[in-house]
Amino acid sequence: MPSPYRALFDAPGTKAFSAAGLLGRMPLSMMGIGVVTMVSQLTGRYGLAGALSATIALSAAILGPQVSRLVDRHGQSRVLRPATLVALAATTGLLLVAHFGWPDWALFVCAAGIGAVPSLGAMIRARWAALYRGTPKLHTAYSFESVMDEVCFIFGPIVSIGLCTAWFPEAGPLLAACFLAAGVCWLTAQRATEPKPHPRERHGGGTALRSRALQVLVATFVATGAIFGSVDVVTVAFADERGHKGAASVVLAVYAAGSCVAGAVFGLLRLAGAPERRWLLGVTAMAVSMIPLLLVGNLPLLAVALFVAGLSIAPTMITTMSLIEEHVPRAQLTEGMTWVSTGLAVGVALGSSLGGTVIDAAGARAGYGVPALSGAVAVVVGFLGYRRLRRPAAGRGGTVEHHSEREDERRERHMA
């Protein structure tokens, strides 16, 4: 039987935009951890390193949805290149300030500019949605993209931390900037598969965040992002305390590998039942998987615990993208997906900053209390907002349109 993943690439141009998206997304896993490693190498201050990583994430949270909203209105090719130039200029400034030891405030100014980097994952998923909306292939495409995200997180930290520790401190973020430039240029050159823009007059100019269900997803992923941000910073410090700082990249890659394996398997399944139930189960599993991190005492056990923890990530993210398509208008799909990334970015900012503070005050092992607490918050928010996810809004996304048609048929039969 042919692989569902192979069938995705029957459409012309899919291989090219997927490869460009993979290249352009490498900075997603390289930049933050690269800045943490670079600054800790140059200054020995994990608090400053975590705060800079948090600044990048918060800036992306503010600027990312605005960039994606412009993409929905004007198209990817017209918006992505200028936004990328801003991010690249800010990255160059950050590297120069760090290298020459200039004041801390200059580091934060440059870090804020890096937030203009566009959400390449949302851009690629929007292309898949334009091709396969309303077909089973879209579930497989979202699964494939989640696997690609995890491939970035498997190799990105290894490359970034490895270059920073083995070559020179600025090497990791520098290569991340090169990947971003190449990926965006390659993607925007591919006009045939670019989704059609939706000018303001076609959807009123409002924000996708008006969707009550999207609000729940974003709020939950703020707490989920805090898990990811704190795990990254704490793991680097945990390995450093044991004299093997370079091994942190391998441990974090194992974390991503667990998610990659789960995402690949999940994409082959055709699951029945409500997606919001699977989503809530995934959020709960992510929270529970943080508890063993409080008990580990060495790097091998930490790697095993993180691999198990990673198994719940990709399935939860895949289901989240399906829920976004149900609850967000097609004309705002890119923005809706970016809002979830924004929630994650805010969470990463909070988690990395709080994680760095706890490390400086009480050591790396105590830092793993931050992802455990963040997971508990995610579960609470998910349960409180669950009812909103059970009521798709009429006229939003392909799945919801089918839902609305079935509701109309039921009303007509009842009246008859």
UniProtKB/TrEMBL annotation:
<feature type="transmembrane region" description="Helical">
    <location>
        <begin position="336"/>
        <end position="354"/>
    </location>
</feature>
<dbReference type="InterPro" id="IPR020846">
    <property type="entry name" value="MFS_dom"/>
</dbReference>
<feature type="compositionally biased region" description="Basic and acidic residues">
    <location>
        <begin position="399"/>
        <end position="416"/>
    </location>
</feature>
<feature type="transmembrane region" description="Helical">
    <location>
        <begin position="250"/>
        <end position="272"/>
    </location>
</feature>
<feature type="transmembrane region" description="Helical">
    <location>
        <begin position="279"/>
        <end position="296"/>
    </location>
</feature>
<feature type="transmembrane region" description="Helical">
    <location>
        <begin position="366"/>
        <end position="386"/>
    </location>
</feature>
<keyword id="KW-0812">Transmembrane</keyword>
<keyword id="KW-1133">Transmembrane helix</keyword>
<feature type="transmembrane region" description="Helical">
    <location>
        <begin position="20"/>
        <end position="40"/>
    </location>
</feature>
<feature type="transmembrane region" description="Helical">
    <location>
        <begin position="105"/>
        <end position="126"/>
    </location>
</feature>
<feature type="transmembrane region" description="Helical">
    <location>
        <begin position="302"/>
        <end position="324"/>
    </location>
</feature>
<dbReference type="Pfam" id="PF07690">
    <property type="entry name" value="MFS_1"/>
</dbReference>
<feature type="transmembrane region" description="Helical">
    <location>
        <begin position="79"/>
        <end position="99"/>
    </location>
</feature>
<dbReference type="GO" id="GO:0022857">
    <property type="term" value="F:transmembrane transporter activity"/>
</dbReference>
<feature type="transmembrane region" description="Helical">
    <location>
        <begin position="213"/>
        <end position="238"/>
    </location>
</feature>
<feature type="region of interest" description="Disordered">
    <location>
        <begin position="395"/>
        <end position="416"/>
    </location>
</feature>
<dbReference type="InterPro" id="IPR036259">
    <property type="entry name" value="MFS_trans_sf"/>
</dbReference>
<feature type="domain" description="Major facilitator superfamily (MFS) profile">
    <location>
        <begin position="213"/>
        <end position="416"/>
    </location>
</feature>
<dbReference type="InterPro" id="IPR011701">
    <property type="entry name" value="MFS"/>
</dbReference>
<dbReference type="GO" id="GO:0005886">
    <property type="term" value="C:plasma membrane"/>
</dbReference>
<protein>
    <submittedName>
        <fullName>MFS transporter</fullName>
    </submittedName>
</protein>
<feature type="transmembrane region" description="Helical">
    <location>
        <begin position="46"/>
        <end position="67"/>
    </location>
</feature>
<keyword id="KW-0472">Membrane</keyword>
